[in-house]
Amino acid sequence: MTTCEIRQEIYPQLTAHVAAIAEQVIPALESVTRLSFDAASSIRCIDRETFVHDVVAAQRRSLERDVYDVPRDRMDQVALDACLYMRERNLREGWMLASVTTLEAADGTIEVLLAQDVLHHAGVREKQLTAHLTQALCRALQYQAGPLMAVHNSAYPQERGLLEEAFPAFVVTGYATWATDEVTRQLFGRPVPVFEETGFETAVFHQALGLFRTQESSGDPVPGPGLVWLPALHGRWFVPPWLPQQGGQWAAGIVQDAGVELLNQVWAQPVLTPTLEETTDRASWIHRVRAHAKELAT
Predict the structure, then answer these.
(1) Are 129 and 178 in contact, with CB atoms under 8 Å apart?
(2) Cα→Cα distances 288→40, 163, 249, Å
(3) Cβ proximity of 123 and 196 under 8 Å
């Protein structure tokens, strides 16, 4: 069985519990996705401040790659810096919603970060922790399967081989949602939503969540369906609320119609990223992927 390194930086009881859950999740996730953990990856149990620091540092590295790889006018860099600042502020203000994430560390390894204090306030129980961990480990598989995840984090995806109006966040988020639903269905008999309410949320959580939603509603408008959402160009760390559901339904439909192996081609070939139009026309995307494969074979 494939394993991940579980790094105990704090909270030894959580670390041991996460290790036990990972032993169940990893083989189920590899079976569902037909992807394998073939590179170094780790799960780190950390506190909230370390979580925020490491997420922001990863976003900064992605911005620096954009500036280095895709030279732009100085004002473009200023705009990207402003977006990064807003995303950091958004993350700090909405920390109650930020308990688990996946990122590429400075040494190139893939890390899953769990903020234990946030998990406590959010009332997360074993089923919900399993869903969180499944989604994060799925993101690790996506990172390891090819360059699309790096493109997804870029402010200039078209400069990295994507088609006009390609929507990397749609397939990245949708795939992870679909895989999480399938794995939790296997383990618990039903899909377990990542942000499912448990009734164990603390008063601090509800207060902070209410304040965050007020700030969200008065801030920049959340991109709605029909618009391509690029994380690096938007001042919000959290994905639009409609994206996991619609993306997950799309991914499930692709798997049903053409198989997960066809869907997995997108990770190593970013040019296959679905366009905005293809996110509502699965048959068109499947046809393009199959045509692309035939062209490569000739």
Answers:
(1) no
(2) 33, 12, 19
(3) no
With tokens 């991109």, the residue in question is 223
Distance CA 86, CA 83 (A): 5
Q: State how beta strands 41-46 and 5-8 pair.
A: parallel
Contact (Cβ atoms closer than 8 angstroms) between residue 46 and residue 113: yes
Please give the DSSP secondary-structure letter assigned to residue 157.
G
Number of neighbouring beta carbons within 10 Å of residue 126: 12
Helical ranges in 102-224 per DSSP H: 116-121, 126-145, 148-152, 168-188, 203-218
Per residue in 61-84, pLDDT (tens digit) is: 988 887 777 767 778 778 878 888
Q: Which residues contact 263 (CB under 8 A, 6 or more apart)?
A: 175, 251, 254, 255
Closest CA to 196 of 134, 127, 117: 127
Residue-wise pLDDT tens digits, 16-30? 889 899 999 999 999
Show Cβ contacts of residue 59 under 8 Å, excluding neighbours closer than 6 positions. 84, 87, 88, 153, 232
Tokens of 44: 């780190």
**Whole-angstrom Cα Rg for the chain:** 19
